[in-house]
Amino acid sequence: MPDPAPVITGVAARDMAERFNRADFRAWARRAHSTGGCAQPVHLRGRITHLDPLTGEILRHYSTAREPGGVLRVACKTRRASRCPSCAETYRADTYQLIRAGLVGGKGVPASVTSHPAAFVTLTAPSFGPVHTRRTGKTGAVVACRPRRDGGTCQHGRPISCTVRHSADDPRLGQPICPDCFDYTGAVLWNAHAPELWRRFTLAFRRYLARSAGLRVAELREVLTVSFAKVAEYQRRGLVHFHAVIRLDGPGGPDNAPPGWASLDLLTAAVHHAAGAVTVSTPVAGDVPAKEHVWGSQVDVRPITASGELTDTAVAGYIAKYATKAAECVGTLDRRIRPTDDPADLPVSGHARRLITACLRLGAIEEYAGLRLTEWAHMFGFRGHFSTKSRRYSTTLGRLRAARIDHNRRAHDDITTGRLPLFDDDQVLVISHWRYLGQGMTPGEALLTAALTGKPLPQLSPSGS
Q1: What is the pLDDT of residues 292-340, one digit of tens each?
Q2: How far apart are the first and last CA of the chain?
Q3: Residue ranges of the domains in the chain?
Q4: Distance (Å, rounded) from C-alpha 295 to C-alpha 237?
Q5: Which residues contact 141 (CB under 8 A, 6 or more apart)?
């Protein structure tokens, strides 16, 4: 169902009317458009001067004194859709181009890369206790969640059976059947060690390839390159799992074809071997026993093709979508837990509150200090990067952003000597001074920005100025 229409309070309406009736509204509206409808623009005050280093002539001077309120508003450039839908969409589009270029070519990657073995791999977390889930039968119809013929209860007296056919938006999805049976300590520690599990997975993957070819790992690099791009996604139960594109290249990366023995079947076998071979151990700490952290039993490997069930376009779109999300689906906060926050008062789901509480409790144990569980409690212990790639997979987000900036500069650059435009080899001395003033918008500015740019209504936050 679509989201309900936002409720415009009297304060927001008055604030919107005040901004609309100001003499600098048109200039403010142009700036809102130039930031792409950013929901939490960064406020800067300062100036920048371009000088001819030989003559000292001022080629161009800019000061925020010309801007509405004497403040320059620039886009926040966050990747999180929950914070800024506009900037997150730019990040999603860049990620899509990055992933797709590694599958079909472009952005500096040759089109011949389409002939290299590539697969879409999913690695999941193990079970830490039964949760409500939405299951479908062979015909695609939704079936009962967790039916038990003889019913029964757990050791805490709660039913272990659930015969509900959950809808896709049922808030019970991902919630434990019995919260007291769910291993919150194990779940938090697994999230914290998921990045290390992935690192060890990549090492075991390469070792398997080398052993299959009768080579040492050091020798493998001379004939084969393993390229990948991955994204982390939160399941509703609060555990992360990884989606990855894994591709086999020649020694020069995508420019070279892999050897004939580097097949899709070998790639698939290497994934299953590596997923089952790696572990991360944690010692006894306080009242927490030693644990062995492993991947879940659900390991999925599907070939990527130009046409068919799983295309390059579908994979790129799927990974790009999750690159802009965090743990919102679990019902947690979109910010870090402050020392003054009482977990009992946080506006989160009961399951998320228990995960956060487990992080705070374990974070106080000296042996877990390096995991920074208290700092990452809002992410249930996971502190890894959501989107990563190997060096030779394709282009980089930095290059895509630089190309966009260069394009905008060529389209709008007004630095001239007063007579002729500057040439590429001309030297310009740039002197600048900037001061950060804050971030955000008033409720009225948020409503006007959404109306002017057609972007989703952002979360209303106080002005940062």
Answers
A1: 999 999 999 999 987 777 888 999 998 998 888 888 888 888 889 998 9
A2: 36
A3: 10-81+398-453, 110-128+183-393
A4: 16
A5: none
